Amino acid sequence: KQWYQRRVAITAGETCPLLELMTNKALKARHWERISVLTGHTFDFESDTFMLRNIMEAPLLQFKEDIEDICISAVKEKDIEAKLKQVISEWNHEELTFSQFKV
């Protein structure tokens, strides 16, 4: 019994930070698809009935490092997308004129 309690505590200690990463709003369908392919588990994350139980059914700890990489990449991609939107917004109002360069 003591061994089991210790194992559950260790597993929870590894799983909780991973779950926290996976709940980030930066994760989009493409990231969930990558996690699905990686784990061999289908995540119906857009469903109204999607729950923590659905995530816990997947072998997360077996692919912990790869899932962390996907989640971290999602956050970085979101930052890049936000910066790109800002650049587009700033340059949308600019008018560029070109003239021929004389040699």
Provide structural commentary.
- By secondary structure, the protein is mainly α.
- It contains 4 helices and no strands.
- α2 runs antiparallel to α4.
- The N terminus is likely disordered.
Ordered list of secondary-structure elements with their pairings:
Blueprint: H1 2-22, H2 29-39, H3 52-56, H4 64-92
Helix pairs in contact: 2-4
Mean pLDDT: 85
How many strands? Answer: 0
Helix-and-strand structural type? mainly alpha
Our count of helices gives 4
Q: Helix share of residues?
A: 55-70%
Determine the strand fraction and express it as a percent band.
under 5%
CA radius of gyration? 21 Å
- State the order of secondary-structure elements, H for helix, E for strand: HHHH
The biggest beta sheet, please?
A: none
Our measurement of the CA-to-CA distance between the termini, rounded to an integer number of angstroms, reads 86 Å
Principal-axis shape equals elongated
Unreliable residue stretches: 2-10
Task: Throw out a few tags for this protein.
103 residues, mainly alpha
Quick recap:
With 103 residues, this protein is mostly helical. The chain has helices at 2-22, 29-39, 52-56, 64-92.
